[in-house]
């Protein structure tokens, strides 16, 4: 059993600009996220929630502070080490999908394995694509898919590698309510099975699937909600002007 948190941050700060134009995107944020937990990060636009997630995942560089993934300090890690860590231990679902336009849906889903010279688990791939309703669309390229279908391909690509930590930025933002509930249910069951999920969302209903909601305002963590419900999350967001 891992004693270190899945993800932790110590006094994490991120600033842009200088002088009067300085923007404090993160202000000395500290947190520990346990293995197998499902955490949602919420807050008003500009509160720093996406910046926090990108820094935690090693996609952006913090101005100060330390970040650990599974006990490994990633702050200052060489690019090659960080790339290997992200490829093998971390998964991402981006708002912008980041699909390769020349590859079909199946090839996009299998891309992390290709980059790592490995073969995907066929059973898991079939399970995930069936859950996401993609089995009839696997031969289609991104431009032949709707926005919701592209989102589901991006989610499948992140899930199929079975990462220890999955970062998801508004993973249900382009999905209809039925598909959204299916994806959130799958994320919930993945966390119950030991995967760590860190999700940025603005939707209280999506956040209610999490074990904990972290609420941000002006670059700081201002609230933490255990066992969130739609009502408790809505109330907390109202207090921070979201």
TrEMBL record:
The keyword Oxidoreductase is annotated on this UniProt entry: no
Record Pfam families: ABC_tran
Presence of the UniProt keyword Transport in the record: yes
Domain ABC transporter: 7-240
Gene3D superfamilies in the cross-refs: P-loop containing nucleotide triphosphate hydrolases
Keywords: ATP-binding, Nucleotide-binding, Transport
Annotated InterPro entries: AAA+_ATPase, ABC_transporter-like_ATP-bd, ABC_transporter-like_CS, ABC_transpr_LolD-like, MacB-like_ATP-bd, P-loop_NTPase
UniProt-recorded name of the protein: ABC transporter
Signal peptide from the UniProt entry: none
Assigned GO CC terms: membrane protein complex; plasma membrane
GO molecular function, a single term: ATP hydrolysis activity
